[in-house]
Amino acid sequence: MEKLDKKKTILMGVILVVAVVAIFVYLNFFRTFTVTFNVQMGVGIKSQEVRIGEVVEKPEDPTASGYTFLGWYVDGKKYDFSTPVESNLTITAEWEENKN
Question: What is the pTM of this model?
């Protein structure tokens, strides 16, 4: 009976290690995040699915009648498109009204 319990314990340990490794690999190499572009006006831009650690592709600059596009921002700071994505993200277009 002792041998069977020892084998069960070893098997459970192996299964646990395999599960932990699988979760680690998924979380660090295969997980994807959604990057959303908030244009605020004009034509919308399609969201992108980006794998963890990769960069989002910079979309074409949007246009809106009567406004000048200033750039893409996150939390009030200009977004650097060379920054690896580590979570879901919303990137917002900033505009300046044209003075006519």
Answer: 0.75
Q: How many CB atoms lie within 10 A of CB 37?
A: 20
Give domain limits for the chain: 1-30, 31-97
- 71-97 burial, b if ≥16 CB within 10 A, otherwise e? ebeeeeeebeeeeebeeebebbbebee
CB 84 within 8 A of CB 54: yes
CATH 3.30.930.10, applies to 31-97: no
**Can you name the residues that pair with 45 across neighbouring β-strands?**
37
Angle in degrees, CA 31, 35, 37, rounded to 5: 175
pLDDT in tens, the chain (100 residues): 566 688 888 888 888 888 888 888 777 777 899 999 999 887 789 999 999 999 999 999 999 999 999 999 999 999 999 999 999 999 999 999 998 6
Residues 93/40, Cβ–Cβ less than 8 Å: yes
